[in-house]
Amino acid sequence: MSGRITRQRAAVLNGLTRCHEFVSAQELHARLTADGTQIGLTTVYRALRDLERTGGVDVVRDEVGERLYRPRTGDEHSHYLICRSCGRSRPVDSEVIEEWTERITAETGFAAVEHTVELTGVCTGCQPAADEGGSRRWPWDSDRTAHRDRRPSRAG
Q1: Residue 98 contacts residue 86 (beta carbons within 8 Å)
Q2: Binning pLDDT at 50, 70 and 90, where does residue 4 land?
Q3: Which of 57, 97, 118, 128 to pair with 43, CA 20 to 30 A apart?
Q4: How far separated are the first and last CA of the chain, in Å rounded?
Q5: What is the DSSP string of 18-48?
Q6: What mean pLDDT is predicted for residues 57-69?
Q7: In degrees, to the nearest 5, what angle opens at C-alpha 25 toward C-alphas 7 and 22?
Q8: CA 129 → CA 70, 73, 111, 146, distances in Å?
Q9: Per-residue pLDDT tens for 65-113?
């Protein structure tokens, strides 16, 4: 994060790392205050904006355009497939997207090109059973209990 690491900014980063899925600023603020952290919503927004600017978080938009945040695990940003029903996410291989972006940048002469790719679907845990034998299993579903961490619904 740019600037001084204050107690509040450290709390935002710590709270964000405890989230297993993407989270909005409002959701993160609610979680922090529920845990007893005294912090303003504006401070949460500022800290998330700083993290985004310095590459500390990946950002996606939900179905209504709200920005959702997740700590970045590597040096480069990732692309995610997000369940429209529960919000569960999983990173996807996006090398072809990054190569395409580099090619477009080189061909057009533009600089500082940024891109957004939103991939959504319905995860296996939210799909109705395909047949009476139950739902299909995918390699990333080795722990079906991880699905119970559904994103809380947002109040108006």
Answers
A1: no
A2: low
A3: 118
A4: 30
A5: T-SS-EEHHHHHHHHHHTT----HHHHHHHH
A6: 83
A7: 110
A8: 30, 33, 48, 18
A9: 788 898 887 766 678 888 888 877 787 887 888 899 999 999 999 998 8
Residue 76's pLDDT is what? 66
In degrees, rounded to 5, the angle at the alpha carbon of residue 86 between the alpha carbons of residues 21 and 59 is: 40
- Structure tokens, 147: 């699905």
Q: Give the pLDDT confidence score for residue 104 in this predicted structure.
A: 93
Q: Phi, psi at residue 29, to the nearest 5°?
A: -60, -45
How much is the pTM? 0.59
**Of 65, 66, 69, 37, nearest in space to 50 by CA:** 69
Find residue 83's DSSP bridge partners. Answer: 121
Give the integer Cα–Cα distance in Å for 25 and 48. 8
Identity (one letter) of the amino acid at 29? H
